[in-house]
Amino acid sequence: MFAGIGSIVVLVMVFGGFLIAGGKMDVLMHALPLEMMIIGGAALGATIVGNNGRELKALGSAFVKSFTGPRYVRQDFLDTIFLVSKLMKMLRTEGPVAVEPHIEEPETSSIFLEYPKLMKDQVLVHLICDTLRLVVVSSGTLNPHAMEEVMDNAIKTHHHAVMRPVNSLQNMADALPALGIVAAVLGVIKTMSSIDEPPSVLGGMIGSALVGTFLGVLLSYGFVGPFANRARQVVESDAAIYDVVKQIIIASLHGHPLPLVIEAARSGIAHVNQPAFADVFDGMRGR
């Protein structure tokens, strides 16, 4: 919603200010379609050259994230704490044999099925299940520090993958001012080929050429760059849920008391998504 509102504000303020200052829209409107074709087409073509089909699809998803916002909200972080804590408590009290069916077939697990939204995130499910598989097969000989390195690597790999389309979007934003100059230079070339025209005609042609520079800068700093920044914020917000999983598992492997494990995971969540102390511990007592 805010992405759409912000885009409208940019357009209203830029063109509104231009009109208030006495500018005329006829030159802009005349040149805009062709300049947009040159700049937008070049940006699109360069993006296609620099990415494969999967990356291009992910690039569209990154753009959509600018409008939809983070996938996870406070309740989802709370549910993640409950889910992982249940599994770790079962591992500690009932042993690996009791946990194994849940991590081998999470789609049929009574614990996992309590959290259908989390089940849709296969990265989250695999992070939990694959880590606990290592714990089960190690028969208690697993070094928590080594496990932390493994989890850090898995989270880092996923984060790098989901950040690639965001970086591509930012690269497009960085390229747009230069592509605007390309369009402007083409306009100047066109103007110079008509140098024998009267000043009134040349003035309009030069104005049309400058629209390219204007449009490239506006698209970069007014739209694509902010969209990339917002998509980065969304990715980083959602990625925090994987750190919650890691915190609970690693702290449990170190043998810390369950209340301390849960509080360490809860306090590491950003305030906007951080469940209240009472919500976490009241929820744990009721489970």
Element layout with pairings:
Elements: H1 2-20, H2 25-49, H3 53-68, H4 74-94, H5 96-104, H6 116-119, H7 122-138, H8 144-192, H9 199-253, H10 258-267, H11 277-285
Describe this structure in words.
The chain has 287 residues and is an all-alpha fold. The chain has one domain (25-287). The chain has helices at 2-20, 25-49, 53-68, 74-94, 96-104, 116-119, 122-138, 144-192, 199-253, 258-267, 277-285.
Short structural description:
The protein is mainly α and 287 residues long. The chain has eleven helices and no strands.
Task: Characterize the biggest β-sheet.
Answer: none
Strand content: under 5%
Structural class: mainly alpha
How many angstroms does the end-to-end distance come to? Answer: 37 Å
Secondary structure tally, helices = 11
Net shape: elongated
List low-confidence stretches: none
User: What is the radius of gyration?
Assistant: 27 Å
Overall number of strands: 0
Overall helicity? over 70%
Elements, N to C (H/E): HHHHHHHHHHH
Average pLDDT figure? 89
Number of domains: 1
Top keywords for this entry?
about 290 residues, mainly alpha, elongated
